[in-house]
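Design request, tokens follow.
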């Protein structure tokens, strides 16, 4: 059994790509460091973000459908830090003025990859730390070869590559590794730089007493290095490499036809001991890798470990899937045997059964409480704070899959009478939607849930034009950004006073700003 830190705490959910930066996307350098300062000023001790994986434009750059479960996105690399390391001599200013409010992934890629390529040319590939990194990363060779082959075959899926490569015949892999060595080295360089910069970020978070909360999707993309390199552990047709069944969820709050995610399913119920060993080994390394980066992990679609929705791959919707038994709590117990106790948040939303709740509680994982799900006129609604029966939970106003709280409150799903009732739970009488985000944050902070986390959009009171994701929609997601001028002292002061009122702030020494950070801040302000 493992639980999160027992101190009451508060945090903010903001993906790294959403942070202010002159390069069109947030990064893991000064962009993140300044956000850590904002979090500290707000009295927060948790920073939650979405998966930091290499995204794919085919899937709208969703962080839940990446090219690898292990690799970090090169678009999140800080160009300023590369320049300070002496790997960039040219001007890093972007050729276009990027929007403060949206990420244009194609333009960002054109801007940053060109500079990363130049930095690679100046990099010493015999660097000892680089050689150590490449030697110790078990997933890196497959990932680098996968990305190089995708380039060679015009971004086609691995299942459409020549058969010897798709089937991973050793002779073909060896030949490709030799032919594509320079590109393989480049992709390894990207990951080395990402890892190096991330370790600095993690150290700075520790200095500010802020714990990083990562996100591990239960499934991986079909066209990913993970599936290509580990075909035996997925439900694939061995001849065509096509998924036999795919992942999704039945009709729910978000979609009347369910959600057909399309990810291949794991062979949890295989009778092959070697396949099961490989499956558990892959998952163990996945947890090991993410816990090297963060302190706490939100396990997305936790209920899928108890039972998962299996949809025939030929079906266009998820309506006619079926529940199949998952590996259960024994899976996590096996992971704990190898890695020790892990601090995990169980994303236990959707169609939850008593068996899922029992598995979560047996493991000691806190579940998620979403305030936007609380107001359906039923006094026994499990998301209403007065119905919470445990402190071992994490309360949210909403998640990246919800509308913003202001957008939700003003939507046509409520009439004025219903809005009045929502306000009454917060001890407010005004029907104004301009302050509903503060009301809901107040209600969440006052709950018995040990941990409270709020999307940055809700902290700032933004409307539904600032949604991060609309489940079921295949375009227009994952691109929201926050302009720097909104991260004000007024906002941080309000958040701090509210967190202090409800025992969620922790007294500590004020962090001393380094000379380098002061210089960079001055440059940014100029």
């Amino acid at each position: 059994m493992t639980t999160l830190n027992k101190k009451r705490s508060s945090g903010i959910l903001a993906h790294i790509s959403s942070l202010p930066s002159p390069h069109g996307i947030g990064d893991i350098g000064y962009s993140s460091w300044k956000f850590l300062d904002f979090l500290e000023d707000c009295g927060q001790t948790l920073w939650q973000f979405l998966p930091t994986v290499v995204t794919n434009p085919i899937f709208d750059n969703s962080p839940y459908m990446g090219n690898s479960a292990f690799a970090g996105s090169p678009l999140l690399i800080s160009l300023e830090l590369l320049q300070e390391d002496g790997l960039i001599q040219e001007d890093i200013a972007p050729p276009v003025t990027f929007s403060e409010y949206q990420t244009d992934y194609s333009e960002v890629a054109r801007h940053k990859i060109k500079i990363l390529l130049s930095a690679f040319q100046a990099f010493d590939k015999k660097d000892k730390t680089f050689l150590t990194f490449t030697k110790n990363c078990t997933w890196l060779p497959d990932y680098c070869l996968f990305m190089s082959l995708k380039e060679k075959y015009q971004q086609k899926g691995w299942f459409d590559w020549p058969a010897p490569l798709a089937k991973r015949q050793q002779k073909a892999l060896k030949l490709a590794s030799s032919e594509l060595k320079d590109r393989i080295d480049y992709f390894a360089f990207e990951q080395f730089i990402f890892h190096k910069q991330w370790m600095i970020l993690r150290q700075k978070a520790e200095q500010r007493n802020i714990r990083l909360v990562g996100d591990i999707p239960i499934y991986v993309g079909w066209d990913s290095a993970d599936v290509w390199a580990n075909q035996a552990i997925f439900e694939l047709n061995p001849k065509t490499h096509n998924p036999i069944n795919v992942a999704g969820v039945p009709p729910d709050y978000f979609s009347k036809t369910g959600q057909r995610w399309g990810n291949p399913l794991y062979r949890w119920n295989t009778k092959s001991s070697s396949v099961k060993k490989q499956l558990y080994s892959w998952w163990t390394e996945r947890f090991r890798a993410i816990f090297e980066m963060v302190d706490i992990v939100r396990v997305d679609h936790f209920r899928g470990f108890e039972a998962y929705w299996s949809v025939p791959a030929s079906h266009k919707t998820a309506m006619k899937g079926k529940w199949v038994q998952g590996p259960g709590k024994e899976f996590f117990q096996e992971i704990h045997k190898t890695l020790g106790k892990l601090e995990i948040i169980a994303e236990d939303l959707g169609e939850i059964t008593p068996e899922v709740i029992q598995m979560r509680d047996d493991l000691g994982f806190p579940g998620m409480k979403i305030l936007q799900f609380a107001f359906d006129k039923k006094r026994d609604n499990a998301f209403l704070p007065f119905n919470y029966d445990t402190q071992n939970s994490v309360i949210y106003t909403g998640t990246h899959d919800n509308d913003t709280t202001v957008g939700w409150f003003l939507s046509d799903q409520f009439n004025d009478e219903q809005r009045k009732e929502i306000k009454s739970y917060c001890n407010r009488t005004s029907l104004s939607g301009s302050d509903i985000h503060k009301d809901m944050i107040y209600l969440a902070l006052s709950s018995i849930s040990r941990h409270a986390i709020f999307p940055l959009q809700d902290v700032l009171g933004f409307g539904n034009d600032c949604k991060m994701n609309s489940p079921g929609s295949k375009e227009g997601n994952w691109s929201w950004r926050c302009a720097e001028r909104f991260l004000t002292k007024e906002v941080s002061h309000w958040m701090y006073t509210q967190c202090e009122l409800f025992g969620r702030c922790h007294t500590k020494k004020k962090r001393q700003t380094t000379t380098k950070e002061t210089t960079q801040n001055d440059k940014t302000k100029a």
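Comment from the thread starter after seeing the answer: thanks! Residues 1-213 form a domain with the TIM Barrel fold (CATH 3.20.20.80).
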